[in-house]
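Thread: adenosine-5'-diphosphate complex, take 2
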Amino acid sequence: MYINGAWVETDQRFTVTNPANGEAIGEVANAGPEHIEGAIAAAHDAFASWRKTTAYERSALLYRAWQLMLEQKQELAELMTKEQGKPLKASLNEVQYGADFLLWFAEEAKRLYGHSIPSARADQRFWVQKQPVGVVGAITPWNYPISMITRKVGPALAAGCTVVLKPAESTPLCAMAMFRIFEQAGFPKGVLNLLTTEDPRPVGNAFCDDPRVRKITFTGSTAVGKLLNERAGRHIKRVSMELGGHAPALVFADADPVHAAKGLSLVKFLNTGQACISPNRILVQREVMAPFLKELGKRIAAMKAGNGMDPDTRIGPLINEAAISKVDNQVKDALSKGASLLGGGERLLTPELAGGHFYAPTLLADVSPEMLIYREETFGPVAAVVPFDTEEEALAMANDTHYGLAAYVYTENLSRAMRVFEGLDFGIIGINDINPTSAAAPFGGMKESGLGREGAQAGIEEYLETKLGGIAVAGG
Ligand code: ADP
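Output below.
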């Protein structure tokens, strides 16, 4: 752990394993109550001076951290592949994406503009100034173990907030590597603190209950987001939540089904399906169903599962046994209710894969609303294809979920693209595009997928208070 500018060890430690083969790859300190208290106290004390630094000083430190990340890109990516399982190329992409947030917010720090407002009174002036919220409690997930840290820490620091970060218990090593970078970059002590723990609850509870923590930023499941939001609500604490998703992908008959199948095979199986923006239901207009399934099936059959360090690997392991059971349960449920299996559908237990958590890339057709996979987030390598006939029907099916994060549309008809874009209740929509994300673009969901936005200009607003000044000007 990293508390008040020093690395802290504990006798009580927990083991981190490689999900591709079950090997132990590290032992990590387990936070006790005294560490939680120490980290919050350090962030609180450091805030008094950090908030007074100039935007230019904060920007320079973020810029330095960005440079260090790029210099250490290969090492960070290799660590990520070992700890999280994704193929090395995907890890390299993630480190780049993660670094992008540091650069973006190094720049945004200098643009925390206020404004003035005309008053109805001749002797009055109004102005609005932005100020940092205070100590931020950040909780991050294991699926994007580096970029989810920089997407929160970057704007928090740029705004002038201090941070206590709790990474996921499966990926603390990536978080530690990022904190070594922040340490090397030269952030003052107490500005950034890291709590590693096997049991997230005491840290989450402290973030909610401790009045010194002014803001909670969380990325993870909707279930945990609700718990944190409810508890933080007791103290009217500010929250940002980036939660689960159930992305629909709509393939219209006016689009090229082969091109659509290619795109969706890439985004569906990215990170072995373990992404909140992963297409969970692929809705295909009946006229193009046959060529679409043919192409998708061919691509899925060619995907090689294995250790992410092997350059041929397209599909890494799932994070743990619970993930395997969840995916397998959804597949079995769908098959028992009439879905057709066009590939995969089972755990991979060949000798070289049996030590890890591998599930075959799977294609299910004829998926329908009564199946679990139609409603529950899968977080695994299963493409679930649902037929539709009309645009109206497709839109109604797409919106028939309590999630609202990402959606994808394939169409060559401009008017349809606009109608569907406007009709979808989702925060991020890719139109003939499978990667509608960037540090410069606002990321976040509607409905139970979250609150607030990350990245972009909007991302820093989450860490700022808006303060109004009204001044009576004698003789004005
Ligand atoms: P996932 O299903 O992606 O593992 P979780 O919501 O369980 O999603 O985990 C995301 C993050 O939330 C992790 O850092 C995890 O440790 C943390 N977390 C899980 N349960 C709690 C809790 N009760 N309080 C605070 N943090 C939690």
